[in-house]
Amino acid sequence: MGKSNALTCPLPPELATKLHVDPVAIDSASTDYGNIVHSKPAAVLYPSSIEDIQILVNSSYNCPIPFGISVRGNGHSVNGQDMARDGVVVDMKSLREDKNGIKIRVSKNHLFADVGGEQLWIDVLHTTAAQGLSPVSWTDFLYLTVGGTLSNAGISGQTFLHGPQISNVYELDVITGKGELVTCSKRNNSDLFDAVLGGLGQFGIITRARIALRSAPTKVRWSRAFYSNFSDFIRDQERIVRGGQRDVANYLEGSLVLDNGTPTEWITSFFHPTQLPQIMSLVKTYGIIYCLELTKYYFIEDIEREIDQDLQQVFKDFSHVPGFIDAKFVSYQEFLTRVPNAENESQTHPWQNLFIPQSRISDFNVGVLRDIVLKRNITTGPVLLYPLNRHKWDAELSAVIPDEDIFYTTSFLHTSGIDNWQ
């Protein structure tokens, strides 16, 4: 590495040779999936070991004027969170691709996996499923790093039942702000453990996580139903969530179908293409159609009919639009990998994720979804909206959630051109 005015302290020689200041490295670390914020670091570290990261952090800690350090997992922050202006970005991809990190080690007898913070959840799925096991809590998109989602929360349709990913971790290895590598759990160094999970990277760098596993299902009965009435939509979702029983559903999410915001492929990938005119007619009539999506997992081939009958009974008691319900059987891995790894560098992703108290969700529907999103015709991507159980979250962790038993998460997953994201 050449001399940098930004890094005010000399770095150990063995580390300096692993720092890159070439334009390709700097440009790569200056953007993210959001493609909105662009901030250049002084250098990018491609670590060949966990010790390299420790040395870097310790060097900054001991420097009279510490330099900023940010960790980049797979570059999927949306507002520059993994950038370090005039500092150093640690690109964890090098540990993953060079296989010098913790990797993924499954303990089948003890039902856990030790996973490097640099590892992708898609690889955790493949590795654990090969041994008939699986984590219980996921994100919708699996091309994210373990350290990245555990530094946030990690939520999806399984969260109402099993809690977020941060509630399904037994133990961590963390590099602290002094560069020390500390093992922590609920029993040992619990303050650090609680702070790091959901701590947005402010309290340490996750290098290993011990993740809870259970037997992996064989297949999934995947169903969707449409609603024209918001009150019916949330009431039926909350009936499932308040029950909190996997014999009703293992996964639950809700979403919006809008005239300009919902890709046709999303509808026809599930409903038959011949139903598209009827569905869009519903959207034209009501402005917004709400979609309830749930799954039921199963393990034995010969109970498909029983699962199908159970789900039919569930929907029989719901208030969805008659005739607008469909279902299909898919493999467990096919369901979890339903969101592809498709990126377009010419687009921006001004995503917004919110937690909303249950007591205000109807106001949110009227004031935001109908009075802003619908009237201004601004939606250019999926909008998710589904309830979560507060008691499935560990209140001692850093993640902040509404102080109500049931609260909602909503995600505006917009896509736009480079020049019109605002």
Automatic annotation (TrEMBL):
Cofactor(s) named in the record: FAD
Keyword Flavoprotein among record annotations: yes
UniProt keyword Oxidoreductase, yes or no: yes
Domain FAD-binding PCMH-type, first and last residues per copy: 37-216
Reactions mediated catalytically: N(6)-dimethylallyladenine + A + H2O = 3-methyl-2-butenal + adenine + AH2
Pfam family, one: FAD_binding_4
One GO term (biological process): cytokinin metabolic process
Alphabetized GO MF terms: cytokinin dehydrogenase activity; FAD binding
PROSITE patterns: FAD_PCMH
Protein EC: 1.5.99.12
Alphabetical list of InterPro entries matching this protein: Cytok_DH_C_sf, Cytokinin_DH_FAD/cytokin-bd, FAD-bd_PCMH, FAD-bd_PCMH-like_sf, FAD-bd_PCMH_sub1, FAD-bd_PCMH_sub2, FAD-linked_Oxase-like_C, FAD-linked_Oxidoreductases_BP
Domain of life per record: Eukaryota
Keywords carried by this UniProt record: FAD, Flavoprotein, Oxidoreductase
Family: Belongs to the oxygen-dependent FAD-linked oxidoreductase family.
Full protein name: cytokinin dehydrogenase
Organism: Populus deltoides
